[in-house]
Amino acid sequence: MSDKPQIILRAKPDGKPYDPEFVPADIAAKMARLFENAEVNFLRLSTAAQVVYSESDQHHMHVADPYLVVSSIKALLEKQL
């Protein structure tokens, strides 16, 4: 996406494993590696990408941290003008 502005919102890291205990170990290990490398991969999407962490550790950002979601959308719109 070259230089298109992007804001990637992520939940606050909580140090817990990504997958529940019932997920097979080999799959959980793959998911953990993806999760660990996610920020680097997100930043590769665009030269104007940025990762922003919420104060919430919940998955549904629009519910857990609506102010952050709205302010990020506004910030992207301002960059487009």
How would you explain this protein's 3D organization?
This protein is of the alpha+beta class and about 80 residues long. The protein has one domain. It is about 45% helix and about 10% strand. It has helices spanning about 25-45, 60-65, 65-80, and strands spanning about 5-10, 50-55. Strands 1-2 form a two-stranded parallel sheet.
Keywords:
alpha+beta; 81 residues; single chain; 3 helices; two-stranded parallel sheet; flat
Secondary-structure topology with pairs:
Elements: E1 6-10, H1 25-43, E2 49-53, H2 61-64, H3 66-80
Parallel strand pairs: 1-2
Silhouette = flat
Share of helix, binned: 40-55%
Amount of beta strand: 5-15%
Mean pLDDT: 86
What is the helix/strand order?
Answer: EHEHH
Overall number of strands: 2
Give the count of structural domains: 1
Question: Which stretches of 5+ consecutive residues score pLDDT under 50?
Answer: none
Largest pleated sheet: 2 strands, parallel
Count of discrete alpha- or pi-helical segments spanning 4 or more residues: 3
Main-sheet strand order equals: 1-2
Give the N-terminus to C-terminus distance in angstroms. 18 Å
Which structural class do the helices and strands define?
Answer: alpha+beta
Radius of gyration, Cα only, in angstroms?
A: 15 Å
